Automatic annotation (TrEMBL):
<dbReference type="InterPro" id="IPR011990">
    <property type="entry name" value="TPR-like_helical_dom_sf"/>
</dbReference>
<protein>
    <recommendedName>
        <fullName>Pentatricopeptide repeat-containing protein</fullName>
    </recommendedName>
</protein>
<dbReference type="InterPro" id="IPR046960">
    <property type="entry name" value="PPR_At4g14850-like_plant"/>
</dbReference>
<dbReference type="InterPro" id="IPR002885">
    <property type="entry name" value="PPR_rpt"/>
</dbReference>
<dbReference type="Pfam" id="PF01535">
    <property type="entry name" value="PPR"/>
</dbReference>
<keyword id="KW-0677">Repeat</keyword>
<feature type="repeat" description="PPR">
    <location>
        <begin position="40"/>
        <end position="74"/>
    </location>
</feature>
Length: 136
C-alpha cells in the first residue's frame, strides 16, 4: 500500500476505505481503518457502510457498538445504514432502538425515513427480536 512508517492523512485514509469497500475488500478497508490515528465520523461511516455492503451485517453492528463505546454518537448516515443492516438480520428491537435514537437526536430526514421504514416494516413481518442498546 505505502512505505512502512508512512501513514496517510484522514482524508486519504477515508478515501482508501471507501475504495476498498467498493472493491469488496473488507479486510483491506478494515486494515486502513485500524491504522488510522483518530477516526472521524466519516471514517466510522465508511467502515460501517463497507461492512453492510459486503454483507457482513454482524460486523456493521459490531463497528457501531465499538463506535458508541468510544463516545462517538451516530449520525444520520450511520443510523440509516444500520437500519438496513437490522432489516437484513431481522433484528426488530435493535432497529426500533436505532429509529428511536434518530428521532430523539433530531436525525429524522423525511426523504430517508419513509423508504427505510417501508423496507423495515416489510422485512419484520412476524420476525424474531434481539436486544441492542445505543446507551453506553
Amino acid at each position: 500500500m505505502w512505505n512502512e512508517g508512512v501513514i496517510p492523512g484522514v482524508v486519504v485514509s477515508n478515501s482508501l476505505i471507501d475504495m476498498y469497500g467498493k472493491c469488496k475488500c473488507i479486510e483491506d478497508a478494515l486494515k486502513i481503518f485500524e491504522m488510522m490515528r483518530g477516526n472521524d465520523i466519516f471514517s466510522w461511516n465508511s467502515i460501517v457502510y463497507v461492512h453492510e455492503e459486503c454483507g457482513d451485517h454482524d460486523g456493521a453492528l459490531r463497528i457501531l457498538d465499538r463506535m458508541v463505546g468510544v463516545g462517538i454518537q451516530p449520525d444520520l448516515v450511520i443510523t440509516t445504514t444500520v437500519l438496513l443492516t437490522c432489516s437484513h438480520l431481522a433484528v426488530l428491537m435493535h432497529g426500533r432502538e436505532i429509529h428511536e435514537y434518530m428521532i430523539v437526536n433530531g436525525l429524522r430526514k423525511d426523504e430517508v425515513l419513509p423508504q427505510t421504514r417501508d423496507q423495515y416494516q416489510a422485512d419484520f413481518q412476524n420476525s424474531s427480536c434481539c436486544q441492542f442498546s445505543l446507551n453506553h
